[in-house]
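Suppose you are handed a protein chain with no further information: no name, no annotation, nothing but its sequence. What can you learn? This example shows the usual starting point.
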Amino acid sequence: MSVFEYYFYPPNKPQFFFPTRKFRIYQEFYKPFSIKSKIFWFFFKKAFLVRYFFKINESNLPLPISKIKEIIELKEASFFFNIGTPGREQKATIIAENNKAKRFLKFAQKPIAQQLVKNEAKILKKLESQNVIKTPRLINYVNNKDFTFILTDVIKGKKVSFTSINDKIFELLCVLGELFPLAQNNNERVFSHGDFCPWNMLKEDSQDIILIDWEMASFKSLGYDLFTYIFHTNFLINEKKEIKDIMEDNIYWIKKYFNYFDVQNYNQYLISFVVSKMNIEKGKHKTQLYSKYKQLFDIYG
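A reasonable first move is to predict its three-dimensional structure. Written in structure tokens, the prediction is:
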């Protein structure tokens, strides 16, 4: 078995590619959330005979492998590839490791995806000025007509398995909202991660939460990250859950968050969030998510 062979997952629409000889090391970079995904992933992890039927040679990966290895510059490294979700924002993320170092690469070739990676580079540089939130160290950034990439170090942590708000998540939301205050803003717009969901979080041994994937970060309406965590997470993971049930399960945290920022009526911020998400999902032609946000608007708009 060659070190240049990879197990691919999921079998029907391969997105993740694990080096066969170091599968046990790299499996931690994938975390399923739906029940169906958890069940299949369990058997995929545990049974070599299952994985055996889902192998691919490195030369057949749908990526410019030689260019990626040249960028990362780690000798005798092993690689984990995530080629991303197909669409105009598709970009690859790669973890590389040898005995001396680990590197993370985000690599985009499509114009919109390139803009997102460009924004992430800008945000990571901005975050270097603070020491409240732990972020990856930006090692290299290149933007040209053919591709855009950021190269960072790898923050040690495990993918979170929870999807509900807890005290740690709430604390992080408040810290983000106060991180880069705008002059005479009155909390209208606050610094926001932009995709504040469980799959963009790592948990350290200390149980502190680390945010990754800052490509959508910007100044947004107060509560944008809070509502993203509540609604976007549920819309993707708990597709059959009623919107009113989602609201009921999280109303305590919503009120607590807006009280923290001295806001009594959160409804205008909810609507601002919903309208923004409707426009985003409509632009991506994701009709199912657009429909969910439209329902949310019809109930609370």
